[in-house]
Amino acid sequence: RDSLESAHRPFGVTILILVVLTFTSLNALRLITAIRTREFLMDIPLQVPVIYLVITGAVWTAVGLLLLYGLWTRRKWSPTMAGIAILLYSCYYWSDRLLVADSAMTASRWPFALGFTILVLCLTFLTLRRPTSKAFFTK
């Protein structure tokens, strides 16, 4: 990819990279915090075992790092992976929220969370479908 430095990254792709970086960082923080505070977490009544926090943090950190690499280096597979990852992450987020999270804590915030999920999904797919984004990943 000799023209990688000279290629102009579309603004939407740059924003998508920042969103992926944010979610990857949050999941890395989840992983690190679960490992560092595992003794404390095991002493309090959690609805899930600590290993759940470690595994989900590790999986989504790994997915995010791979996706960041693909988006940053213009890999042809990265738009497809981004679409699949955002759908899977949304399913994971809502299943975690509905099945694991304390319903009393999340009950009043679900409209915002739903709106934010829909917004991120729409913006991701709109960005990936734009002709400038498609051209960026096919050059």
Rg from Cα: 17 Å
What form results from the Cα inertia axes? Answer: globular
Task: Outline the biggest β-sheet.
Answer: none
> How many E strands?
0
Poorly predicted ranges: 1-6
How much of the residues is beta strand, in percent? under 5%
Estimate the helix proportion, in percent. Answer: over 70%
Distance between the termini: 9 Å
Could you list some keywords that capture this structure?
mainly alpha, 0% strand, disordered N terminus
Q: What does this protein structure show overall?
A:
Helix content is 78%, strand content 0%. By secondary structure, it is mainly α. The longest helix is centred in the N-terminal third of the chain and has 26 residues.
